[in-house]
Amino acid sequence: MGKLNKQEQRQLLDHYFLSTTEALAILRISKQNFYSLIHRDKITKVKKDGAVLFFKEEILARAHAQNQLRQKYRPYDFN
User: Fold this and answer.
1) Do 42 and 27 meet the contact criterion of CB atoms below 8 Å apart?
2) How many CB atoms are located within 10 Å of the residue 17 CB?
3) How many whole angstroms separate alpha carbon 11 and alpha carbon 36?
4) CA separation for the pair 61, 36 (Å, rounded)
């Protein structure tokens, strides 16, 4: 595999990882709840120097599971 240019590297990052802001938007939860999930090892945090990223696939799976739980335990939100 040859060396990737900056645009290809960015596309690769966008494909596999999310920023905190992107993860919060997908999960639709508070920062406090989000950091609690990280602390309890429910969400994996990837750190490199000053950057903090999250696995996109893991966040999307969590969002799907949360939607199912919300429908089960908070059905009044879906009427």
Assistant:
1) no
2) 19
3) 29
4) 17
Distance CA 1, CA 65 (A): 36
3-state DSSP assignment of residue 7: helix
- pLDDT higher than threshold 90 for residue 70: no
CB of 20 closer than 8 Å to CB of 54: yes
Question: Taking Cα atoms as reference points, which of 34, 32, 14 lies closest to residue 24?
Answer: 34
Residue 50, C-beta contacts closer than 8 angstroms, at least 6 positions apart: none
Closest CA to 15 of 31, 4, 28: 4
b (16+ CB within 10 A) / e for 30-41: eeeebeebeeee
63, pLDDT greater than 70: yes
Return the DSSP state at 74. Answer: -
* DSSP state letter for 43: S
